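Suppose a colleague, Dr. K., hands you the sequence of a protein chain of 139 amino acids and asks what its three-dimensional shape might be. Before reaching for any lab equipment, you can write down a predicted structure in token form. Begin with the sequence itself:
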Amino acid sequence: MPKLKGIEWAVQGACNVLLVVCLGYLGAGWLTSPGAPELDQVVLKYSLKNGSSIYGVRDGRGGATVGYSYRYYVNAAMTTDQEILTTLVSKRPFLKTREPDVQVAEHEGVLHLSVSGQVYEYNSYSLEGLGAVNIDMKL
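The predicted structure, expressed as tokens, is then:
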């Protein structure tokens, strides 16, 4: 049975194009990923009644042209700032802001967070393990 050389070239070319597109997609995703935060300063410690605490830390990747961002986490209580910074690098924050001015207060079982400035991200995934938690945020 004779071989069809024209079809082999087309199939090989399509496979090569698909490979280049896939590698380009993966490379672009890797280059644009934010990477691990550089936590360098603890700006908030607030103890909760269940043995956990809310921690606010500064992401030191800011600087002269880009402002710092501040990340807020719920985690088991820790004692030293260095322990807080090294533990929280691998955790997911529930709140990311531009300003460190987050006030936390508890009134009748409701946790109140007052945020000044821009909020980059908020999610409640970090809060799921705490049980019934009511959070009232004022922006």
